């Protein structure tokens, strides 16, 4: 299992060989036939998200981006076509982000930042416009103010889509106002507009304000985080951050302003984590996909 995400009626399961959905009626696997119209257009699923209309989007390591409209059974495919600037920059898409009711953004390679219009399906390449290069892109998060956050192997930047300027968040192990060092591969927006970010191997940061700054960071060294080897960050229905780490699952405790171990969950590497519409927690560990009721 490579990704877990909430669907309209159940949980989506991204696989190394396709995608599946689990709901009250059971497990549903989707056929992989890259050349067949409407079939799932790739194999390894890297990221899954849903848009405001209930459509589901999939980032594919070997097939670009796929979309499944609500109440449909056929996938639309957005691909990289060599020599076609109206296609995706790269075929291997790492992560996705939803831009309100307008678009979905995809990051790929070291320079691929693409905007897919949700109505027309038109693709715009933004990596060149923003002069992005030389860094493997790992996460993307648009905001409502004509800005877009891009995580990479060297940190986190916020780009302006109007001025094309970039604001780079500082990264330093000793500075309290800087991101923990590490590649930023998880970004999530809270209802108040602030952002949670995890730097793999470094820790977790809470970012807010304008201009944005690190409000607080969470590290094993300060005993505010158990394990900095964070594989996944997800928000539950109350917007509380949960982490899947190399040691298990941690949940943010607002009263203590720290991440705490969650009793009753396995203390071993968790590779994927997500919440179903009924509030249940799904997680993947080696050899098992498990569902837990959250009290």
What does the model show?
The chain is mainly beta and 295 residues long. 0% of the residues lie in helices and 48% in strands. It contains no helices and 27 strands. The protein has strands at 3-6, 11-15, 18-23, 26-29, 45-50, 56-60, 64-68, 76-78, 93-99, 103-108, 112-117, 123-125, 137-142, 147-152, 155-160, 166-168, 184-189, 195-199, 203-208, 213-218, 230-235, 241-245, 248-253, 258-261, 270-275, 281-285, 288-292. It has a 4-stranded antiparallel β-sheet with strand order 1-2-3-4, with no helix packed on it. It has a 4-stranded antiparallel β-sheet with strand order 5-6-7-8, with no helix packed on it. A hairpin with a 5-residue loop joins β15 (155-160) and β16 (166-168). The radius of gyration is 18 Å and the shape is globular. The two termini are 25 Å apart. The mean pLDDT is 93.
Keyword list:
295 residues, mainly beta, four-stranded antiparallel sheet
Distance between the termini: 25 Å
* Dominant shape: globular
Share of helix, binned: under 10%
Structural class of the secondary structure composition?
mainly beta
Secondary structure: number of strands: 27
Widest β-sheet, arrangement of strands: 1-2-3-4
User: Taking Cα atoms only, what radius of gyration do you get, to the nearest Å?
Assistant: 18 Å
Oligomer: single chain
Mean pLDDT across the residues is 93
> Strand percentage, roughly?
over 45%
For the biggest sheet, the summary is: 4 strands, antiparallel
